[in-house]
Amino acid sequence: MTTEQSPKPVILITGSSGLLGQALAKAFVKDYCVVGLDVKEPDEPPEGHHHIGCDLTDDEHVRKALDSVGQTYGTHSASAADDIQTKKIWKGYTR
Description:
Strand content: 15-25%
CATH architecture: 3-Layer(aba) Sandwich
Strand order of the largest sheet: 1-2-3
Distance between the termini: 15 Å
Number of helices: 3
Largest sheet: 3 strands, parallel
CATH class: Alpha Beta
Shape: globular
Radius of gyration: 13 Å
């Protein structure tokens, strides 16, 4: 999905400050608007990476972060949610 804020499709990376998250951000930033969720900002974020501070172990932090993503980039999303808690969190953000 492209948005008014970004001509590129948006990709959301959780744990974006970790080794894998940073590698994914670098791999996708050329073709996607990369939005990273993590407690701290990445040490060396690639140009075009957008960070949203979020403690992924705290439901309220996740809700606020997803609200921010939804307000900025829209709410159309695709995800793989296997556990009940994740499904509860996402229930309010899917159509």
